[in-house]
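Re-run with default settings, no changes from the original entry. Doing this only to confirm the output is reproducible before filing.
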Amino acid sequence: MRTTVEITEEQHRALSAIAQRRGVRGFSALVQEALDSYLANLNTDEVDLLLGLEGMLTESDAQELRSRITDVRTTWRAS
């Protein structure tokens, strides 16, 4: 599945260096590896709890939340 992820310039440089050292093109394999590691270290009870929240918002509440997130992102600054 394709998606867009915002990263810092420093993260981009680091990923580029790692990819070059490994002889791979692009960051997909590196990001997948990092996500696998992150997910493997999560508390499974927490993951189950979060997954259980799916469908808890009404469509109206979900749309309002999406709208608020969009508004916040207009002033979002990466540190």
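Helices lie at 9-22, 28-40, 44-52, 59-73. The chain has a mean pLDDT of 89.
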